[in-house]
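QA checklist item 7 of 12: single-chain prediction sanity check.
[x] sequence parsed
[x] length recorded as 260
[x] structure emitted
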Amino acid sequence: MKAVTEEKRPLKTLDRVISKAGLGSRVEAGRWIRGGRVSVNGRVIKDPDQWVDMERDRVRFDGKPLAARERIYVLLYKPTGYLTTYRDPDGRPTVYDLVADVGTFLSTVGRLDLDTSGLLLMTNDNQFAERVTNPESHVPKTYLVKSSLLLTDEQLQQLRDGIELADGPTRPATVVRLRDSAKYTHFEITLTEGRNRQVRRMVEALGAHVLKLVRVKIGPLSIGKLPIGTWRLLTPAELAAFAPTSSTATRSSAGNHSAP
């Protein structure tokens, strides 16, 4: 008897299809869908979780065919005091306030917490974001740290070798002492993983805490002389530096994409 095989189709929920096209966040897409602004194959769909075949179904927004927006890649110098969520119920500022003039919806590539400043990538290219944030890619991220205490050479070596945290030991890191003041140590650390609040937790494991944390580099990208609170587009050469290799192209998307 001949076996029947069913071709695997690229299915996504309708709200994700709208968001991936660069029109807005999934929350916004859900609101538009429930408002009757989206049709699939000529029929208005009001369920954001409706499955859509990306190759066969015809999706329209406000009566017009859904077309993917131009791919945009932004490097933002995030100040402290800004969230990386799209909206905050308490009305606190978000990084989206800083890129409102980009002209299309962007998602953050990973996150920086409220009290961390520095280099933040934003894009409407989900595949690019996945290459950068996938833990298996081991894209290095470099931070400048101000510690609340003077750290010894032995303590900095602990950071290099790996610190035992609640979620397991950290990967080896590159650590460079920059300078010491009367009370504080300033150092640079480069990680190849991105656990939640990782730098802060590593320093806390040494009995100190982080007074200042700035991300200055992701992979080959440096924040350079970009003024804080401003953004610029990535150059073609910078974008090419993140092009997938044969080994990274097939990696899965599982893992924690949070940043320190």
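[x] summary fact logged: The mean pLDDT is 87.
[ ] second reviewer sign-off
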